[in-house]
Amino acid sequence: MGSARPVALRTLVQERLLVRDLAQLATPRPAAVPARGNDLRAVEVIEDAYVLCSGGAVEAVGRMRDLVPLDDDVEELDGRGSCAIPGLVDCHTHPAFGGDRVDEFSLRAAGATYEELHAAGGGILSTVAATQRLGEEELIVRVERHAGWMLRHGTTTWEGKSGYGLDRDTELASLRAVRAAGGSPTWLGAHAVPPEQADADEYLEWAIAHVLPGAAELADAADVFLERGAFDAAQARRYLEACRGAGLALRIHGDQFTEGGAVPLAIELGARSVDHLEATGERGGAALARSGVVGVLLPASALFLDRPQPPARALADAGAVIALATDFNPGSAFTTSLPLVCSLACTQLHLGPAEALTAMTVNAAFVLGRGDRVGRIVPGLPADLVLLDAPDWRYLGYHLGGDVVAAVIKAGRPVFRR
Question: Is the pLDDT at 7 greater than 80, yes or no?
Fold first, then answer.
């Protein structure tokens, strides 16, 4: 990327910002949100472009030759050699945790499976123990650190789950930490069964009675791990119906290792999404395509665990709504990079760059209930932009693991510069 120049940025003292002389601007422009079918590929590209931001929103977008003279009170950001895309949206992360799982990583590299480690008391439960030992202040510090990692990879909107507390105080502290760091909190109260509980049914009864009232005041959504060794479909239904009754939107971790009924349950209950889908078969994919439930695909997790990738191409071709996310967590997807996920989507999931961009912007925003506000560079919407140090916006996926994010603008203000 030798032709790209560093971004020149003056101190911003006014409310208006002009990002000028961009090599390209690329933004999804689907006919409807969420995007599916041909709309997944509906990305508008403007060459030699500018973006004018005012009051935190996009005021105007166009070609430099059409830019009218502006008042002197407009600050300028030199975008020569850069491309602008919308701020990326990570709709599935687990940022509230203590400790790490590097020892487990080594064991898995030697042949141990994720399910074997979980059954032996490792996996989720080992992180639960480390997270419960943290105080709330330290938990906030951890989540803010992880949010900073996301920002440096171009993520301006993100969701963060609890689920590594599994007791009342730590679960609620996790949700507060996500909110404090700027994320959208999801109560993953049904992530695993803590060892002090006799079984999954007993734990859910306790969680619904003692944690849900507080979680409903803090979270935007609820999630459940519907999988062999965690919670079955009947237990997931009980938990999700209680959460829906408390006013929370619904999400499901499903079909990661086995098809356990997650897709039909998500459709029946009107969940916003079912996430993972590595084990989803043809029948489940067809049902998802006929529904309004979003399939959130997590290729970094499948890669990290050496699992089959989700059937993204088949889902997209069938007309399903798909989104992409990192699944950032300490055990099965230790990455905060949506550009890396974009590369995996193009090379492993066989999605085109335009489909991948739409899946990690406007469709991911839809999962968070923000599809009408976030994920596009359109006048009137929040001015969340990522500048890529590249001559073509498709370097987002093309430069595998590259340091491609040059600057990030959030609500019309530069918040990161490499």
Answer: no
